[in-house]
């Protein structure tokens, strides 16, 4: 018998089967086996590991780090604070001491303040001092009118002038010309008529300043203009200035003052020498410094100014010596070591005349210096006639 052959399935079915057979293993390979291990590998172990790594091990070091850091910071803060406190303790007291030294009166100022009580000074001068001159003022006031009052800040805080101000013997007040300027730029100078270099101080601010300063006290002061065209500043002129209770010092700048200031205010013009300075501030200091020496109570020894150069004798001062007795081959004259006061007075007078003849012959006159009794001069200088 012939075998009956099965009819082959149609082509469509074949193709479907083939496709199915091909797709299933792929799906099984791709989807089933691959997804599970990936998920397991990715999700399960990694999460645990991450949790273990993040949560368990990291918490302790973080806490430890935080504690360690906080401890270190605390220690640093403590150390820094202690260092700062130490530095403050070291620095602050020194600053305070410096301020005390600067601001609070020193021992000398206190002693001076005790000595220079006005009533006590007047009585002491009347009783003891050889310079008991009724024309001299026991207190003098200087009003300095200038464009640069800051120049005087250091000068007023030094040496005898500082002590005299602290003791109430001298009063120095500073005034700025610009405070009486009328324009917004506070200008006090202008160009000179007729041309030429430099600027001149104008009339308006100077006149207003002088009138306002004069009204600052009950009695007006004597107006002094520092100018190279004025009369020379001599010892005699200083004596007249020291006898004035109040002085107004006009300090010029640039090319000087408008000449109508001299005509209208009629000041006393003073020159400190045959030279020109940048302004009148330094000459004003010379006037103040030379005048206060003649105010009773300013100098430690009341009679010391009498025997300076240009003083009562009109001669230059004799040579002076101090220790050591010999220095680099130069020795002190034997007459000063003899103890004979008459011989010492005679020697000093001769040296004074000789030095004046050599250096300033214009100071010599028929009745100046040579007629003075050297013995009397020495007694006055040493105070042996008290």
Summarize the structure.
The chain has 386 residues and is an alpha/beta fold. The chain has 14 helices and nine strands. The strands form three sheets. The protein has a five-stranded parallel beta sheet, with helices on both faces. Strands 3-4 form a two-stranded antiparallel ribbon.
Question: What would you say this structure looks like, in words?
Answer:
With 386 residues, the protein is an alpha/beta fold. It folds into two domains: 109-302, 3-Layer(aba) Sandwich (Alpha/beta knot), CATH 3.40.1280; 306-382, Orthogonal Bundle (Trp Operon Repressor, Chain A), CATH 1.10.1270. The protein is built from 14 helices and nine strands. The protein has helices at residues 11-30, 32-42, 44-54, 56-103, 107-115, 118-127, 152-155, 159-166, 203-214, 235-242, 259-265, 281-292, 341-359, 374-382, and strands spanning 140-146, 170-176, 189-190, 200-201, 222-232, 246-251, 268-271, 326-327, 330-331. Strands 2-1-6-5-7 form a five-stranded parallel β-sheet, sandwiched between helices. A two-stranded antiparallel sheet has the order 3-4. Helix 3 (44-54) packs parallel to helix 4 (56-103) and helix 10 (235-242) crosses helix 12. The longest helix is centred in the first third of the chain and has 48 residues, at 56-103. The radius of gyration is 49 Å and the shape is elongated. Mean pLDDT is 77; it is low at 111-138, 366-372 and 377-386.
- Mind telling me which CATH architecture of the largest domain this is? 3-Layer(aba) Sandwich
The fold-level CATH name of the largest domain is: Alpha/beta knot
Helical coverage, percent range:
40-55%
List low-confidence stretches. 111-138, 366-372, 377-386
- Arrangement of strands in the largest sheet: 2-1-6-5-7
The biggest beta sheet reads: 5 strands, parallel
- Could you tell me the mean pLDDT? 77
Morphology: elongated
Which H/E pattern describes the elements?
HHHHHHEHHEEEHEHEHEHEEHH
Q: Tell me the span between the first and last alpha carbons.
A: 183 Å
How many alpha or pi helices?
14
What is the strand tally? 9
What is the total domain count?
A: 2
- Provide the CATH top-level class of the largest domain: Alpha Beta
Content-based structural category: alpha/beta
Question: Which band does the percent of strand residues land in?
Answer: 5-15%
